[in-house]
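Throughout our pipeline, every protein is held as a single compact record rather than as scattered files. Such a record has a labelled line for the sequence and another for the backbone structure tokens. The remainder of this section carries one protein's record, kept here as part of the documentation:
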Amino acid sequence: MAWTKYQLFLAGLMLVTGSINTLSAKWADNFMAEGCGGSKEHSFQHPFLQAVGMFLGEFSCLAAFYLLRCRAAGQSDSSIDPQQPFNPLLFLPPALCDMTGTSLMYVALNMTSASSFQMLRGAVIIFTGLFSVAFLGRRLVLSQWLGILATIAGLVVVGLADLLSKHDSQHKLSEVITGDLLIIMAQIIVAIQMVLEEKFVYKHNVHPLRAVGTEGLFGFVILSLLLVPMYYIPAGSFSGNPRGTLEDALDAFCQVGRQPLIAVALLGNISSIAFFNFAGISVTKELSATTRMVLDSLRTVVIWALSLALGWEAFHALQILGFLILLIGTALYNGLHRPLLGRLSRGRPLAEESEQERLLGGTRTPINDAS
């Protein structure tokens, strides 16, 4: 069945905005600028402020939801409103997980390459699978266990590629290892977020844009308030600002004032996350959850190719092997092999099955799968 122009637009929008999201964050990290009080030129390392920007982008999805609801007000379209009332505080625990995981990943992005960052996020499959068995009582089929094993093997290969790659003054070996470990730790928190969303949120049939926006609101408000104590908490070698604190938002604004392109990168990150969430939700609705997963894998290829072209990282053949193994693991876990085996055994295309996303059992991603 051929795609319509609208479906092609949605697929392209998801691929482009998803790639911009990671690349713009890394672009901001690469800038050097003077800070406040005449401090010497230093890297723009403000992961918690960048996380606040990401939540602002998610929060904007709430505005998109209400615009859609106003548009559908005069029509008999019930897909915009939830079918039953719900307490918005249900989104607070997942938002706290999202806030912690996102902040960790932005810290890690300062330490490792954009392509490794994107590939290592595939570790979420391991923890979502294990947590779904432990806490949701779900039983995984053989292909899903094989997918988890393949993902572990892929992570090992990507990790080896990082260890064997040449490291410059910006990314020392110790920092790369720490960054990679932080990304994997963040996926544990993301998996907890997915379990919480599955157990307490999805049964209320909340519109995805409303869910993303509500979690974004919680994350934006809480993390913005946390920037105040972070300004005073010493962070030692983990700090990227001259004061040596966990986060220095004032230093970030001073750097933006002295290097306006940082603002362009931050705005690209904020706007891309909003459009990426909208496009991802729309792709799942108009096409399928499997298509969304394939496009997300293509996003990794785009990020890797552009990082190489821009000279942000060096080519290493092991990364190709690692990515292919991770791709196989993701495909096995999400059941992408079944249509192929069905066609080979029957000798004709399978009838399209209705694909309703099911978190942790296969194709559902977290409400706000961004970063």
Notes: Residues 173-201 form the longest helix (29 residues).
